[in-house]
């Protein structure tokens, strides 16, 4: 029953696509979150040099998620991914108190860019389940 309702709504309203940019400092957990959403399981990751792109479907919305590396040398390249972004997921390692201010500065730099002014923002405080 629920599946047929979802299919009917998709036919009426159409399927939607949304471009999501996932950014944050290195080791914040962006790639782990992406693949947990995509595969519904935890995966072993290595530092992202460049980017990962995956489509995650939820109900009738396809989220094209761009997970871009967060090392300090890569961050100046983030702006090249802004065009067409409709939502920003900014991932923060909530256990890394020494770099919270650095993360805040990077987030302010991103949302100050005119290309990102109208996009939706989610600040994801990651690693809250870890002791510390």
UniProtKB/TrEMBL annotation:
Binding site for GTP: 24-31, 70, 126-129
Gene Ontology molecular function: GTP binding; GTPase activity; metal ion binding
Record carries keyword Magnesium: yes
Organism: Diversispora eburnea
Keywords: GTP-binding, Magnesium, Metal-binding, Nucleotide-binding
PROSITE patterns: ARF
Chain residues that bind Mg(2+): 31, 48
Protein family: Belongs to the small GTPase superfamily. Arf family.
InterPro entries: P-loop_NTPase (IPR027417), Small_GTP-bd (IPR005225), Small_GTPase_ARF (IPR024156), Small_GTPase_ARF/SAR (IPR006689)
Membrane among keywords: no
Protein name: 9137_t:CDS:1
One GO-annotated biological process of the protein: establishment of cell polarity
Pfam family, one: Arf
């Amino acid at each position: 029953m629920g599946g047929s309702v979802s299919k009917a709504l998709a036919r009426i309203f159409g399927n939607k696509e949304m471009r999501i940019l996932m950014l944050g400092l290195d080791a914040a957990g962006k790639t782990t979150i992406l693949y947990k959403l995509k595969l519904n399981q935890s995966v072993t990751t290595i530092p992202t040099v460049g980017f990962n792109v995956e489509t995650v479907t939820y109900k009738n919305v396809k989220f094209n998620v761009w997970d871009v590396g967060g090392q300090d040398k890569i961050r100046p390249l983030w702006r090249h991914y802004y065009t067409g972004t409709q939502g920003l997921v900014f991932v923060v390692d909530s256990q890394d108190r020494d770099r919270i201010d650095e993360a805040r500065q990077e987030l302010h730099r991103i949302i100050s860019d005119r290309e990102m002014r109208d996009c939706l923002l989610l600040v994801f405080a990651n690693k809250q389940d870890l002791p510390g």
